[in-house]
Specification:
The chain has about 425 residues and is α+β, with helices and mostly antiparallel strands. Helices cover about 25% and strands about 35% of the residues. Strand 9 and strand 10 form a beta hairpin. The two termini are about 40 Å apart.
Length: about 425
């Protein structure tokens, strides 16, 4: 049986931005608790049942469909976290019933089984951070509720016990109160990497609740301090990068010459670049076409099965001469249209069935108003730092021998992802387009 890999695809948009000053972070009284588990012991791989391995494949299929949808709209570099989105939606599904819940669970790849989705998410919450002591990985959830409403006990118990999500009631005197508390929480849970997350216009006028997830990843490339993966002294400055659709930009290329695992998806080449002790890796999928519409063609035919097959059949029989752009990207999305296109429709309608989330005289008068994600990635000679924050905004309704040598020059638009290798869970996925 093929080893299933879970990918974190990161779709990238390269823009310049400066680090946040601590003084910019809002000072809030009694900040939201952080109760996510910290690993006390470490494991060698994620342990999945056969059913959960199918969830990985389905989750990767959701990630790929999401990536296609975002790229069709953006036609540019972008970064995205399907895993962060999955957690925010999974918690939300526990407050829904009927077709509203079914659409969310089906779209996330768990059929009709809410309990199975909860168990799968809990397993990853506990095991992903415990895989590699040299990789910093944090997953955190939280729920913020307008104090005019009360959370139903069953929903709260699941969110707290399965997702380790603290609850907080807020007096919504103005939208900035909500923004400040969420932004401060996202800042702490991503080591300051995602900030600011929200602005006032992201909070609906009829704000009821926000279901939150934050994901943070930081790791050095595999290698030793005396022989690093990428030596900054070898970085090639201001070299041409060939963008899809024509045109060029100038980028700095990190250079490495060493054995890498590599393979193919049809005519597109795939390369694995490991982090730390090798439990996580970045996968570069480089289209055969340079300067045309290679990524569009790649994404149109890419499936979870093809990706899994490529990752499980990679070889390491060559010295690879690698040139990889050094880049930093950040994107913010409102994901309602994408999620509707993928199959989650009822949750956004006035007849949404969120009758298991809150106590209120019009308990079924709630819907998802918006789903917002902000993601950011930085790839450099030392390694990679990536983060994402997602908010589901609830609102009231209106109702052998000498090795051969190959070259792998990532000098044109490509797809990449960050993956936990033993499970195949996708953390980030992306496209790099040189800008």
């Amino acid at each position: 049986m093929k080893k299933i890999k879970t990918l974190l695809f990161v779709l990238i948009a390269v823009i310049g931005f400066s680090a946040c000053e601590k003084s910019d972070v809002p000072k809030v009284k009694n900040p939201i608790d952080i109760v996510s588990p910290s690993p006390k012991t470490f494991i060698t791989k994620v342990t999945l049942s056969e059913e959960q391995k199918n969830y990985v494949n389905s989750g990767n299929a959701f990630a790929i469909r999401s990536l296609k949808s975002l790229y069709e709209k953006e036609k540019n570099s972008l970064v995205f976290s399907p895993l962060s989105l999955q957690y925010a939606l999974a918690i939300t599904a526990n407050g829904a019933s009927g077709e509203t819940a079914s659409e969310i669970i089906r779209t996330l790849g768990c059929g009709e089984d809410q309990e199975a989705l909860n168990n799968y998410c809990n397993l990853l919450l506990n095991q992903l951070p415990a895989l590699d002591k040299n990789v910093e990985l944090k997953l955190a959830d939280a729920v913020i509720v307008n104090e005019e409403y009360r959370v139903q006990d069953a929903f709260r118990n699941i969110a707290e016990k399965v997702y380790y999500a603290p609850f907080e009631y807020v007096k919504v005197t103005n939208k900035q109160v909500v923004v400040d508390r969420i932004n401060e929480w996202a800042y702490r849970n991503t080591n300051g990497f995602i900030f600011p997350f929200l602005v006032e216009r992201d909070i609906p006028d009829d704000f009821v609740a926000a279901i939150l997830n934050a994901l943070y990843f930081k790791a050095k490339w595999s290698g030793h301090s005396d022989v690093p993966m990428f030596n900054s002294e070898l970085t090639k400055k201001s070299q041409p990068f060939y963008r899809d659709g024509g045109g060029e930009s100038k980028v700095d290329y990190m250079v490495a010459t060493r054995p890498f695992r590599y393979g193919k998806i049809e005519e597109n080449r795939v390369l694995e670049i490991p982090y730390a002790d090798g439990k996580f890796a970045m996968y570069i999928i480089l289209p055969d076409m340079k300067g045309g519409n290679g990524v569009e063609q790649l994404l149109s035919s890419l499936t979870s099965e093809k990706l899994s097959e490529a990752m499980s059949s990679m070889s390491e029989d060559a010295i690879v001469i690698l040139q990889l752009p050094k880049f930093e990207s950040e994107n913010k999305y409102e994901l309602t249209d994408m999620l509707k296109a993928l199959g989650i429709r009822r949750a956004f309608d006035d007849d949404a069935q969120f009758d298991k989330m809150l106590y209120h005289p019009v308990a079924q008068g709630f819907k998802i108003g918006s789903v917002i994600q902000k993601a950011r990635i930085s790839v450099a000679e030392w390694g990679t730092e990536a983060g994402a924050a997602t908010a589901v905004m609830m609102e009231r309704t209106s109702s052998a021998g000498q090795p051969k040598r190959i070259e792998f020059f990532a000098d044109h638009t490509f797809v990449y992802s960050i993956v936990e290798k033993s499970s195949g869970v996708m953390l980030f996925a992306g496209v790099y387009d040189g800008k």
